[in-house]
Amino acid sequence: MRIIALICLFVALLLPQPVLAVTPDEILKDPVLEQRARVLSQELRCMVCQNQSIDDSDAPLAKDLRMLVRERLVKGDSDRQVLDYLVSRYGAFVLLKPPLEISTLLLWGLPPLALLSGIVMLLAMARRRKAVVLDTPALSTDEQRRLRKLAE
Amino acid sequence: MIPELGHYALVLALALGIVQAVAPLIGALQRDTALMRLATSTAIMQFVFVALSFAALTACYVTSDFSVVNVIENSHSMMPLIYKFTSVWGNHEGSMLLWVLILAMFGASVAAFGGNLPTTLKANVLAVQSWIACTFYLFILLTSNPFLRVAQPPFEGRDLNPILQDIGLAVHPPLLYLGYVGFSISFSFAIAALIEGRIDAAWARWVRPWTLAAWMFLTVGIAMGSYWAYYELGWGGFWFWDPVENASLMPWIAGTALLHSAVVMEKRNALKVWTLLLAILAFSLSLIGTFLVRSGVLTSVHTFASDPSRGVFILMILIFFIGGGLALFAWRAPLLKQGGLFAPVSREGALVFNNLFLTTACLTVFVGTLYPLALEAVTGEKISVGAPFFNLTFGPLFIPLMFVMPFGPLLAWKRGDVLGVAQRLMAAFAIGLIAIAASFAAMGMSSVLAPFGIGLAFYVMAGSLVDLVERTGLFRMPMATVRARAAGLPRSVWGTALAHFGMAVTLLGIVCATTWGEERIVALKQGQSVTLSGYDLRFDGMVQRTGPNFRELAATFTAGSGGVAIGAMEPSKRSFVARNSSTSEAALLTRGFSQLYLSLGDVNEDGSVAIRVYFKPLVLLIWLGSLVMALGGALSLSDRRLRVGAPKPAKKSAAKPSTLQPAE
């Protein structure tokens, strides 16, 4: 048994990094605070990773940030205060959902703008066409017979 | 010798490609049939030579020829044979070779099966296809030669990235590339139509099977990639809104929009200009995806190597094809005549609605993916756009889209009766409402929104079957009649119903797995157990094992439900000696459509192990739904009307009007 434990330890030391993101020792006793910490963690970016949240990342930096979030929560910060604190330390880069500012106006504005202008354009086109549709006379029986022949 | 042959075959393919890029165009201009016909044989020979080149590289890998740089860097003599095959495309150079192989294959298929295409259209399509091929041959030969040799071969290779040593690598990239590259055909058709300045319903009919095939492959490719990431990366997520994933999602959304608008064009000769634009965009987005992944602008597991010169080259290809394509569109599209008028409430209207929302969704992903890059380039300001952004902006677009989805196929062409259709969908509405009520009853108020998602999913599932039920006369007519009618329905009707059904199944999986999943992170000592969602997991001990090219430390767990053992789970950590790196292999236990997911963390000094265990309710539906969608595509593709060169069926006598198919 001890040999196995030794082997385990040896192998564990060999591995370059821990594979789990959130580890058991980080978890807060208070389940409500812990839940808040998890939700907040999903909004925060691990700055050394490719678009990963600190909740998903196993990088050491992400672990430090998770600890920091939990520390602030235990001290009684609100969610907003925790995020503000991290932004003041690391900049807006840390937020996976960028705040609405002048520089992100296009990011937030373009999709709804595209949808709205699409709807307006389609409505305008439909209006223009409505008249034409109503003006088009129905097919005569002869034309209908020819159409059926063509469709076959 | 073999690598040199492979290299030479690629050069020959380029030479043929240059001929094919020029000669058919001149032929089409001068109405010279011989020159136009040339494209058919060059396209097929191009494919033969690229296939030879690809076979040569495969041979180098299978025989572990460590005189080839590419093999040294990505292979190991002890690797299992299957990974020796798959590691051919598990690296930058090889994956580009796979890219051009598939490109040449599509070109050759158009040449071989496009017998019923007008000669000039076929010549132009193959010429455009060859422009694309030539730029990528040049890219490989000039910046990413996979056949480079070293003077003094080492004894052993450096092994393939351990994360890629998985069956997923055998499936995901080829399928994804079949999808990406498949859209090149739609692109070539669009450019050819613009060059000729002529486009009609027949064009849409020719281009639709290719688009459909590409879309199908891309659907399965993305789904497999997602499943691979789910079990390999070890944190149980199935979609991360990673820029590289987004790069594959964008062509999929554009391709889906293209499929729907091509229907309108084929049936009603309307939306021509828009369909052309979508065809150009779908492939442009595929190219952008290739650029993002291959240039090193983004780094991730997909980016095997980053080299600025490659990035600049691909950027030039990108500018040439997207810029050129859109410029040609802007110049020639106004010349095309619009046809087919329709009222806003009609099947065309529903398909336009679909296109509006899909395009907006695509734009959302596009902006979210590229905005941070653009902002940093322009102002130097760094921001992140991640999952919370996309969940907030992309998700809501799919609600109206899915709500309208069952209406589409039930509305009449030209002018529809929305109230009548709503009446026919009564049963579907009822099923949706019952699902909402049942979810609230079963899960309480744990989530206020999720039950509505479930309701939407059930409504769409039921709604997409309404058309089938009505047209086969199910519940109304004797079984024999129903069977006969079902056999007589066009396959595309089945395809539509299945694809829409699959979309709803995927939605159901996403809602359930993300809302009601449970997660525990604990450290367990031997003999201890953890309980979640009614399952308990007992940690039995550790086992040390040796694989072909790795060592493995596995933890054995017994999963039980209500005191009865239901299976063993063995998550493990593998350390790969050659690369001095490790992977974590999660253990999955499937219960119906749900899964228990167990991944291993650190082994502590006191002998306890840290584990992360999830219960993911109905998670398999996410990928199953995608497979159903693709199956719908396959059925639609097998429809006689789309099969290329299919003969007309013998005319049924008019004496049996009951077998007449409804006009489509």
What are the key terms here?
heterodimer; A: 152 residues; Helicase, Ruva Protein, domain 3; 2 domains; disordered N terminus; B: 664 residues; six-stranded antiparallel beta sheet; four-stranded antiparallel beta sheet; 10 strands; globular
Helix-strand makeup class of chain A: mainly alpha
Instruction: Give the CATH H-level superfamily of the largest domain in chain A.
Output: Cytochrome C biogenesis protein
Total of domains of chain A: 2
**N to C succession of SSEs of chain A:** HHHHHH
Describe the structure.
The complex is a heterodimer of chains A (152) and B (664). Chain A has helices spanning 2-14, 31-43, 60-74, 79-90, 105-135, 141-151. Chain A is mainly α and 152 residues long. Chain A has two domains: 2-94, Cytochrome C biogenesis protein (Helicase, Ruva Protein, domain 3), CATH 1.10.8; 105-151. In chain A, helix 2 packs across helix 3 (60-74). Chain A starts with a helix and ends with a helix. Mean pLDDT of chain A is 78; it is low at 1-19. Chain B is of the alpha+beta class. Chain B folds into four domains: 1-165, no CATH class; 168-411, no CATH class; 425-516 and 626-641, no CATH class; 518-616. In chain B, 62% of the residues lie in helices and 11% in strands. Chain B is built from 20 helices and ten strands. Chain B has helices spanning 2-30, 33-62, 69-74, 81-86, 92-113, 119-143, 167-196, 201-232, 243-268, 272-294, 308-332, 347-379, 387-404, 407-410, 418-424, 426-443, 450-472, 479-488, 491-515, 620-637, and strands at 518-524, 529-532, 535-546, 550-561, 564-569, 572-576, 581-585, 587-591, 594-603, 609-616. The model of chain B is unreliable at 644-664 (pLDDT under 50). At the A-B interface, helix 1 and helix 5 of A face helix 12, helix 13, strand 1, strand 3 and strand 7 of B.
